[in-house]
């Protein structure tokens, strides 16, 4: 009695055109490449964030920087906790990495990596106690750190040489600040007013 050969990957192999890559293998290879690029970007990100050549020239940085000023009905500590919670809730979908939280300086820094090529954008927020006990003002900005993505070898070095090259942030920085503000409001605190800073093009 003959036993039927199990169908599945063996049948797929027989039907495949010579030289064609198996779709499962192809997706695995793509995932491995993305993971390697992500790890390399994470490794180079601190140097890129420290140098931040993308914002050296005032005229150029306007193309890929966005800044808002918020008035929040909460204490500074409550605002910082709400912002951290917003970052954590969006970290996977928006590729956010909480890097610095300074309660002494009332400052938070976040690394944001674009999904496609791991360009490094940086979010920085400074919180200040208002004239009233339960009111805080905050200045939040997001900007692109350099012309080349952080997954490129020695990206921070090449971006220093290319600091003069104008490039667009493709609206990511604007979207990111607005999304963080809206998420903060949904989670816990009320942003009673906001305005786009005049020094930055929307």
From TrEMBL:
* The keyword Transmembrane belongs to this UniProt entry's keyword annotation: yes
Q: Which UniProt keywords apply?
A: Membrane, Transmembrane, Transmembrane helix
- Annotated spans, Disordered: 1-28
Bias kind Basic and acidic residues: ranges: 1-19
Enumerate the transmembrane spans. 147-167
Q: What is this protein called?
A: Uncharacterized protein
